[in-house]
Amino acid sequence: MKRQFAIGLGVAAVILTIPFASKLPVVAGLFHSDVAIAKAMQHPKVQLKLLGEKQVISKDAQGKEVISWNGANQLAVQTGDVLRYRLMGKNEGDRPVKNLTLNQPIPKGTVFVLKSAKVASSQPTQITYSINGGRSFVEAPTVQVALASGKVETRPAPAEAYTNIRWNLPNTLAAKAPVNAEYQVKVR
User: What predicted TM-score, i.e. pTM, was given to this entire model?
Assistant: First the structure.
């Protein structure tokens, strides 16, 4: 009689365990999703918008050149036109962003206008450039040039060689704070 009771409890334990075990993946999934939700809440959100504008040069009443920018939705451009790209962003999160990096390729069919990259921010920003499609960045890219004498010389990279621009804001970007960067290119 004692044997039957022990077997009966064992069967009841197995029967009670099966429904519970079948729900374990769901419970485990909930624990993992809570962790994922918590991690997502810890990551700030930086919203970015890219705006292209065409340079328009006109003359004022005194005959002095005045530069303005046309930002229409559809811009007709020609060889020689200068375009300004503005990368406008904002930390939409509730937490600061540390060490924000913005990377922007130079559009095909254009040439970077040297020294035109800047950032509208009160914090220090390191601006670096790539001449190899974004694989590496330096502040002043250089190239090796073979001279007629056969000697090889290191020179500053020409504007045509630039492929990417990177803005690195090493300090924190506060919650709800804006960040704006820009650069200019010339249509080939």
Answer: 0.73
